[in-house]
Amino acid sequence: MDPTGARWRRSDTVSLVAALALIAVAVVVGHQLKARGLPIVLPGPPLLAFWKPHVGWGTPLAIGCVVLGLRLQVTSPTLPWRRLLLVGWLLNLAWMCSLTLVDGVRQGWVDVLTNPNEYLHDLPRITSPATFLSTFTDFIAFRDDLDPGQVWTTHVAGHPPLATLMFWLLDRVGLGGGFWAGALCILIASTASVALPVTLRELGAAAAARRLVPFLSLFPGAVWMAVSADGLFAGVAVSGLALVCVGAGRGRLPASLAGGLLLGTTVFLSYGLVLVGLTVLVAIGLTLTHRGLRATLGPWVVAVLGALAVAVIHLAFGFNWFTGLAELRVRYYQGIASQRPFSYFVYANVAAWFISCSPFLAVGIWRAAAVLARGRGAPSPAARVAALLALSGVLAAVLADLSALSKAETERIWLTFGVIASSGWSLLRGQGASWALAGCALSALAVNHLLDTGW
Predict the structure, then answer these.
(1) Alpha-carbon distance 422 to 188, whole Å?
(2) Which residues does 113 contact at the CB level (< 8 Å), separation at least 6?
(3) Sign, CA torsion 313/318/321/324
(4) What is the structure's pLDDT at 455?
(5) Tens-place pLDDT, residues 153-176
(6) pLDDT over 70 at 377, yes or no
(7) What is the signed CA dihedral for 268, 221, 246, 187, rounded to 10 degrees?
(8) Is the peptide bond before 379 cis (omega within 30 degrees of 0)?
(9) Average pLDDT, stretch 351-363?
(10) In whole angstroms, what is the distance from residue 422 CA to residue 393 CA?
(11) What is the pLDDT, as a whole number, of residue 1?
(12) Minimal CA–CA distance to 76: which of 239, 218, 244, 223?
């Protein structure tokens, strides 16, 4: 049976039901743990969310986006490539904005990043980037010689300093406050909707890239990507991936350098995104297979040098990535992570991820696994490209899960991995693709209108 066939298959239903069952188990067990008094600190396990059915003036806009997305799926095979990317990107921007505005301009957009646990809280403490970088690791973990007020707030401490510096620079150019910070997150997060299709196309899966555009224009994770630094991280990471693939595939060294700089930046925005390196390794292997070592060695060396340049700059200013990660581990287990049971979160994390990216993500993952299980050349080299990318995102999420540094909130922490894993949706065609796209969009609408996610 062809795992890229156009019909909806029994295996698709099985994978979807399995994801829904995992979510149900995580919900039931999570509430039982709360009833027993265990401090999992989740109001709506497995999510950091409250039950709050509501609508807003973004609701009709979101419904309109769904209608346009379903229409885009019909026309995507025939639209000129650049026009398809432009339409997909604009639709994704509208989708994220509309979902945000369901909660209102202030609650859904302006106030999100001004939360005391967020990056903007500590911006007044930064006197200069050089001082901030050189002293950053001194204030990550709580210590006896530090007043609690001297320690960085949760999200500042939980990431390398570049994440906070990004918002500091925005503030310094006169665009301070929650609105502009949220707008920056939305704008950069939206680039993932075109960057991943570009990646697929450059790796030899042009038809799959076209099929993926409508899925990413209505990506369910937009509920958490909009007005979220984690969404911004996803945009930077996937854009870097696309550029290095363009550089390697076409011999364009400037693209390789830009992509390497973005991938290096990604690692200095979020420690966990070093796992995007798995996808980069897949891309390297595919470009070597298609174009050979001689044609791709130069572009990849340039990309690596670009990534290393980001690390060298940070070291020159006094920030050591490994020291920061070690201090973060100490801080992580000084808080609620030390009391959250790993035995629950090892599967509840995955359940939260499936809620964020929709349970239909499991269908794409299953299709990807089926393609690779059939062996080389079957059903097609292009399908293998999409499958390998999808499963690299899944493997990254699995490794993050097993690290025990991702207890809860994976609905946003794993957004980058979810975007990459969504490559599996490009293996769906015809009726199967239509069902999956509609299901993805409706799951996002349901989550956004039934829950207060805080994002």
Answers:
(1) 18
(2) 119, 120, 167, 178, 181, 182, 185, 227, 229
(3) negative
(4) 63
(5) 999 999 999 999 999 999 999 999
(6) no
(7) -70
(8) yes
(9) 98
(10) 8
(11) 60
(12) 218
At 4 the pLDDT is 74
pLDDT band of 39, cuts 50, 70, 90? confident
pLDDT value at residue 454: 74
Cα 412–Cα 415–Cα 420 angle in degrees, nearest 5: 170
- The pLDDT score that the predictor gives to residue 391 is 98
Please give the Cα distance from 415 to 278 (Å, whole number). 15
Q: How many residues does the chain have?
A: 455
Burial code (b: 16+ CB inside 10 Å, e: under 16) for 428-446 equals: bbeebbbbbbbbbbebbbe
Contact 196, 238 (CB under 8 A): yes
Q: Specify the pairing of strand 451-452 against strand 50-51.
A: antiparallel
